[in-house]
């Protein structure tokens, strides 16, 4: 936080850097100096609107030095006007980098106040501006609120670093629900590999109460990732086995119910590529037996027959069934 000078009590509310500016203003007779002096006096009496009017007048009169800009910024900060405060602090810091501590302190104070009144947008704006001035700045206990703010507005990639910070800060008893949110954030940016790690951790921690909520995500992400793996060029055997494990997890959980025929079909194709023709045929047969397979059943039966009547050519196909 900014330091305060040990001046008379009426000026104790002024940051030290502003008080220094007041000393120089008191002995001058220029119009802008008079405006600054009146602004400082109003600020000391917590008449922030009046102080701001005087400081802005000084700017119009030509007092556009770093300390005057900082006065304007600090007064906007006292009025909780994040955008205006950050704009003037950016100008002040550009002229005098020693003002960065005061700027960051005011911005983080506004962020905390916004968090207390549950204004996540203002909180995030203040933190963003502070981070521009001091990258890597800690955000105290605001990590989870920031993460949820970005998640809710669809900026899932920006949410993830704050979620990761929150997981380190939270007690174990409060971690489970956050794990689910982190998994969903990764899922939204199409990173199912990381999403599944968090979904499975959530499932383990939450127990049966969380199965209904997370199994759909595990099944969906696992199936999607399995298809991506198998669709790659010249997929090695260990990757096919990884895809098989993912699709089998979807079948084990039985979720989402609507893609179970597709999961069995995918399993059949993977087993075929691995050269397990009997297993592939069994998986494809299961597709044909499912009521909601639709046109997929016809495709499954066609591949089933292709494997069944072409198994004598396995050696020529490098172990693959089709």
Summarize the SSE layout with pairings:
Blueprint (H helix, E strand, L loop, with lengths): L15 H11 L4 H14 L3 H13 L5 H13 L3 H14 L4 H17 L3 H14 L9 H10 L3 H14 L6 H13 L3 H15 L1 H23 L6 H17 L6 H14 L3 H13 L5 H16 L12
Helical content class: over 70%
- List the total number of helices: 16
Low-confidence parts: 1-29
The helix/strand class is: mainly alpha
Shape: elongated
What CATH calls the topology of the largest domain is: Serine Threonine Protein Phosphatase 5, Tetratricopeptide repeat
How many strands appear in the DSSP assignment?
Answer: 0
What is the element string, with H for helices and E for strands? Answer: HHHHHHHHHHHHHHHH
């Amino acid at each position: 936080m900014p330091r305060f000078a040990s001046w008379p009590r009426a000026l104790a509310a002024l940051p030290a850097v502003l008080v220094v500016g007041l000393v120089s203003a008191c002995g001058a007779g220029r119009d802008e100096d008079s405006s600054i002096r009146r602004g400082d006096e109003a600020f000391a009496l917590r008449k922030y609107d009046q102080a701001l009017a005087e400081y802005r007048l000084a700017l119009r009169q030509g007092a556009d030095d770093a300390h005057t800009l900082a006065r304007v910024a600090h007064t906007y900060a006292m009025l909780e006007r994040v955008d205006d405060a950050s704009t003037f602090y950016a100008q002040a810091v550009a002229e005098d980098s020693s003002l960065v501590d005061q700027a960051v302190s005011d911005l983080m104070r506004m962020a905390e106040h916004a968090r207390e009144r549950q204004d996540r947008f203002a909180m995030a704006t203040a933190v963003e501006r502070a981070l521009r001035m001091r990258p890597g700045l800690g955000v105290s206990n605001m990590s989870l609120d920031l993460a949820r703010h970005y998640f809710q507005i669809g900026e899932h990639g920006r949410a993830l670093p704050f979620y990761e910070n929150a997981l380190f800060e939270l007690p174990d008893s409060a971690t489970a629900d956050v794990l689910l949110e982190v998994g969903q954030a990764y899922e939204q940016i199409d990173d199912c590999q990381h999403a599944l790690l968090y979904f499975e951790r959530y499932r383990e921690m939450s127990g049966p109460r969380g199965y209904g909520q997370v199994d759909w995500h595990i099944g969906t992400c696992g199936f999607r990732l399995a298809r991506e793996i198998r669709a790659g060029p010249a997929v090695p055997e260990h990757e096919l086995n990884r895809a098989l494990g993912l699709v089998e997890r979807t079948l084990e959980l039985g979720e989402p119910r609507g893609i179970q025929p597709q999961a069995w079909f995918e399993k059949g194709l993977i087993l075929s590529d691995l050269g397990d023709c009997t297993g592939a045929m069994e998986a494809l047969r299961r597709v044909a037996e499912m009521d909601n397979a639709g046109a997929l059943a016809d495709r499954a039966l066609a591949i089933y027959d292709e494997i069944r009547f072409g198994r004598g050519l396995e050696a020529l196909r490098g172990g693959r069934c089709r």
